[in-house]
Amino acid sequence: MKVSLFIFILSSGMFLVTHHELKAQKNSEAVGLEIETDPLAYFLSGYSFHLAYTFKHIRASMGVFGIEQPGFFLGNEKLAVFSSGYDLKADYLFGNLRGLFLGVQMTYGKETIELKNGQAREENNGFTYGIRSGYRIMLGKKDKQFKGLYVIPWIALMHAPGAKPVQVGPEEYRPAAWIPFPTVHIGYRF
């Protein structure tokens, strides 16, 4: 129920802000809809889908994701962790839709932690927030408002204020309070 309410609030807020900005926007050059994914998520036995609106120098997006965390990241070879959740991002675009950006991100996530032998399983839920920056490489032409494919390498530094150890059978899982997250998204601008 909490996750559904969170999604509803994020969706409603993004719609209202976007609707207002789209109506107020006289120059439609910087207004657009984008969809994107994180190929790394699929490589890590997960999924990723994000929807974004751009207006003027602002980009707002929301998405869903899931990944199986790599073993070297966990620090405990007896555990398997699947992280999934929803996120909301807002970025300031320094260029005209392409180039450097700086933004903020808020995520509600769930970690499913289990012993690899399947004898114990626990869940860890909570919010993280952080800052992010990257570079938008737009493959479309400027005179066509950069419509088409794009690539965005970016990195975030996320903070999990409620990070606490979780006991899973005889093993302990210690989530990080600060998480650097580098990745590359591939998308399409309409």
Compile the SSE list and pairings.
Elements: H1 2-24, E1 32-37, H2 39-43, E2 47-55, E3 58-68, H3 71-74, E4 79-93, E5 99-115, E6 121-138, E7 148-159, E8 166-168, E9 171-173, E10 178-189
Antiparallel strand pairs: 1-2, 1-10, 2-3, 3-4, 4-5, 5-6, 6-7, 7-10, 8-9
Descriptive account of the structure:
The strands form 2 sheets. An 8-stranded antiparallel barrel has the order 1-2-3-4-5-6-7-10. By secondary structure, it is α+β, with helices and mostly antiparallel strands. Helix content is 17%, strand content 56%. The longest helix is centred in the first third of the chain and has 23 residues, at 2-24. It comes from Negadavirga shengliensis.
Any descriptors?
alpha+beta, two-stranded antiparallel ribbon, 3 helices, 10 strands
Helix content: 10-25%
* SS strand fraction: over 45%
Low-confidence stretches: 20-26
Main sheet strand line-up: 1-2-3-4-5-6-7-10
The value of Rg in angstroms is 18 Å
Question: Which structural class do you get from the secondary structure elements?
Answer: alpha+beta
Q: What's the architecture in CATH terms? A: Beta Barrel
- Spatial shape: elongated
Number of strands: 10
Q: What oligomeric state do the depicted chains represent?
A: single chain
Number of domains: 1
Q: Output the helix-strand order.
A: HEHEEHEEEEEEE
> What name does CATH use for the topology?
Porin
Please report the number of helical segments: 3
CATH class category:
Mainly Beta
Terminal Cα separation, in Å?
Answer: 33 Å
Q: What is the residue-mean pLDDT, rounded to a whole number?
A: 88
Protein name: DUF3575 domain-containing protein
